[in-house]
Amino acid sequence: MKEGKKLGKKKIGIVSLGYGWLPCEPGPSRFYEIAKIFSENGWEAELVGSSFQHFEKKPRDTEKIRKQGYPFRCTFIPVPEYKKNIDIRREYSNIRAAGRVVEHLRTRKYDAVYCSIPANRVAAAVGKYCHEQKIPFIVDVEDLWPEAMEMVFHVPVIKNMVFRWYRKDAETAYRCADAVVGTSDGYTDRAFQNQKRNIPKKTVYVGCSLSVFDEGVRENSPEIEKTENEFWITYAGSIGASYDIRTLVMAARQLQDQGEKDIRIKILGTGPLKAELEELAERLDCRNTEFLGYMEYKKMAAYLAESDVLVNSFVKNAPQSIVNKVGDYLAAGKPMINTLGNREFMQLVEKKGFGRNIEAENAAVLAETILWYQAHKADCEKQGEAARKTAEMEFDRKTSYLQIVELAERLVE
Prior knowledge:
Elements: E1 11-15, H1 30-40, E2 44-50, E3 52-53, E4 58-59, H2 62-66, E5 73-77, H3 88-105, E6 112-117, H4 120-133, E7 137-141, H5 156-176, E8 179-182, H6 185-190, E9 201-203, H7 210-220, E10 231-236, H8 245-257, E11 263-268, H9 274-283, E12 289-293, H10 297-306, E13 309-312, H11 324-331, E14 336-338, H12 343-352, E15 355-357, H13 363-375, H14 377-395, H15 397-400, H16 402-412
Parallel strand pairs: 1-2, 1-6, 2-5, 6-7, 7-8, 8-9, 10-11, 10-13, 11-12, 13-14, 14-15
Antiparallel strand pairs: 3-4
Helix pairs in contact: 3-4, 4-5, 7-10, 8-13, 11-14
């Protein structure tokens, strides 16, 4: 299908309570972009989100959102609030949300429904409803629950009881699916691990909107202060259990001890471990390290573009694959140090030549790699060019998300 082709007024419900963030809010905008590209290609789209903003853990400003004038309908399902990512109240919220989403779907006449997983309970409920009503159901695998939670939840009896239901709900969603979209091959294939079915599937990276990223760079780069000799190493993203910011701080201290005065560590983002890691950096007297907190997307883009090397920093055995930040990192056109041990992503780094894979949780190796990049500016430039080329070819949502529209069109022909 060619970009811009009109498909007729078919109706699609795009259900994403935990991930359906919009440009006027903090948080990634993947599902906004999906709804937008369906609308641009002749579909009548509705983004079904939550009344609770998961990223900030507070009620949404729905009036502010409605004033933006998005080219699709936005509906916000009322759900109970919760305080933490891993919280029994979050599970209660998802249980209540699942029933309320289905109640809402009964008031609509969709030609197809597109639904993110997690939350597993919501995806399972939506999948069962669509199966019963014979509505084509596309499941979008954003993350793996409970695999991603097992790293931080250490109460065996409760863990086994709760996670059993996560797995059951996931299998229900996959069994009801008429097609699967995953944000990596590993995530796509997870839907078929216990479901040997011949249904359409696509891997569509989270990616980013290159035009929006580049606009952010143009608008904000002039305001960023950086001296000529400074060499910036930057991390942008969540500061939680899977993301190894501790080793980055320890490497910063080693570099400082070695007398490296020009290297600066910039940490963008927020999360449950931010305060603890800021305290660690202060205790170690890391004068080369700065926690900049959450940053509006376009300003973050400028910081990435002004950096010299970007760090995709994960702990050992992290279950993630090709995560949100990768598209933005590549768009910045900078080399990437990767500690994520996911085989699919490590192979992508090597094949495309935009960075180096190193051992996770090893501050000495990380510090040594940073020094290598500082001493090899030509390699930095070469890998940065490879990163930008990869972004343009495979991670630009303007073209890559058309694959999702094409998949839905095949199901409703």
